[in-house]
């Protein structure tokens, strides 16, 4: 009984947020991004690098610490992480994609694709790019470009009619090199923030 429980826990920890097979099918020639040397989700450029969906075990691989380089995550417990992972997986529409350095078993890059189901455009899907971050010690290796192009092509593969993002002014040129465009008369980001419910 103890061995079966241990095997089930190991399998649970390696559980992907979404089916990883879809990443192998992405056609990087569809992206206007230029990679020198050429890399892709299937071949990220180094044997020690893997592009894959988020796993439960990434709690122990520095995923939250990586997100802290982007913004505050708070003090998330293992239980909270597992509950949110389960909620995201069960509801569908969440494609958190990571880059792992397998030498250190650390998550070094991440981006989130959320897919909204719409009534407009013939009941289509719209993708949103969120939470893009690369570990500061790994920058300059095309990883930001790699993770953004991966989730953008993933949105296309899933049938999204468009992909949107919000970014700081200093990042506009970067995203333009990846195919994103400011739409005249429609390039405003507005937010309404609420007090912390706790």
TrEMBL record:
<dbReference type="GO" id="GO:0006048">
    <property type="term" value="P:UDP-N-acetylglucosamine biosynthetic process"/>
</dbReference>
<keyword id="KW-0808">Transferase</keyword>
<dbReference type="InterPro" id="IPR000182">
    <property type="entry name" value="GNAT_dom"/>
</dbReference>
<dbReference type="GO" id="GO:0004343">
    <property type="term" value="F:glucosamine 6-phosphate N-acetyltransferase activity"/>
</dbReference>
<feature type="domain" description="N-acetyltransferase">
    <location>
        <begin position="49"/>
        <end position="198"/>
    </location>
</feature>
<dbReference type="InterPro" id="IPR039143">
    <property type="entry name" value="GNPNAT1-like"/>
</dbReference>
<keyword id="KW-0012">Acyltransferase</keyword>
<comment type="similarity">
    <text>Belongs to the acetyltransferase family. GNA1 subfamily.</text>
</comment>
<protein>
    <recommendedName>
        <fullName>Glucosamine 6-phosphate N-acetyltransferase</fullName>
        <ecNumber>2.3.1.4</ecNumber>
    </recommendedName>
</protein>
<dbReference type="InterPro" id="IPR016181">
    <property type="entry name" value="Acyl_CoA_acyltransferase"/>
</dbReference>
<dbReference type="Pfam" id="PF00583">
    <property type="entry name" value="Acetyltransf_1"/>
</dbReference>
<comment type="pathway">
    <text>Nucleotide-sugar biosynthesis; UDP-N-acetyl-alpha-D-glucosamine biosynthesis; N-acetyl-alpha-D-glucosamine 1-phosphate from alpha-D-glucosamine 6-phosphate (route I): step 1/2.</text>
</comment>
């Amino acid at each position: 009984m103890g061995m079966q429980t241990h095997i089930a826990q190991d399998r649970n920890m390696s559980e992907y947020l979404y089916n990883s097979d879809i990443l192998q099918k992405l056609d990087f020639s569809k992206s206007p991004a230029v990679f020198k040397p050429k890399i892709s989700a299937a071949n990220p450029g180094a044997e020690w690098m893997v592009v894959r969906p988020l796993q439960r075990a990434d709690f122990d691989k520095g995923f939250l610490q990586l997100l802290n380089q982007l913004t505050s995550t708070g003090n998330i417990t293992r239980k909270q992480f597992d509950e949110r992972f389960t909620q995201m997986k069960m509801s569908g529409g969440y494609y958190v994609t990571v880059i792992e350095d397998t030498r250190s078993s650390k998550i070094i890059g991440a981006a989130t694709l959320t897919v909204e189901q719409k009534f407009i455009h013939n009941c289509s899907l719209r993708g949103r790019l969120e939470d893009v971050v690369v570990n500061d010690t790994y920058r300059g290796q095309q990883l930001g470009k790699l993770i953004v192009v991966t989730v953008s092509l993933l949105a296309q593969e899933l049938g999204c009619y468009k992909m949107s993002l919000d970014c700081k002014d200093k990042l506009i040129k970067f995203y333009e090199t990846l195919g994103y465009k400011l739409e005249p008369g429609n390039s405003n980001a507005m937010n309404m923030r609420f007090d912390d419910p706790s």
